[in-house]
Amino acid sequence: MKSRKRLLRWASGIMLVLGAGHLSLLALTAWESITGWVDRGVWAAVPLMLADGAETVESFRNSVTFWAGPGSFAVPLILLGCLTWHLAGRGVAVPAGIGWGLAAWCALGGVLLVPSPYFAGVIAGALVIVAARKDDRSGAAREREMDLA
């Protein structure tokens, strides 16, 4: 039980660092665009329709900043990290399918966007998978003990 909790806490820590690091790096590199949203209103980040119908460099920069920041993988990754941390604290196993999905998504992202820290997400996914398997093995051992009794 302790080792599963430790594995899930490490996985959630990796997810939290990746997500928060991504948002922090974006805040440092695109601060002018982000503060521009405050001046024009948050809805101006990615307008549904451009006023004159033509995309400008500024509107493109706004779109890129949005999709690289609040619209990116960072926010859901932080939320998944928080959920994993919470479930580990309660002793609840995160399903292995979540780990497989995270590992596959991060592996694909790492291949498409080299160099990037996406591959650290593969480690987090693998830790979730190993923690889920530890739970399966302990459940099978309990069933064998019950059968012998």
Automatic annotation (TrEMBL):
It comes from Nonomuraea dietziae. The chain crosses the membrane at residues 7-31, 64-85, 92-112, 118-134. Keywords: Membrane, Transmembrane, Transmembrane helix. This is Uncharacterized protein. The lineage of its organism: Bacteria, Bacillati, Actinomycetota, Actinomycetes, Streptosporangiales.
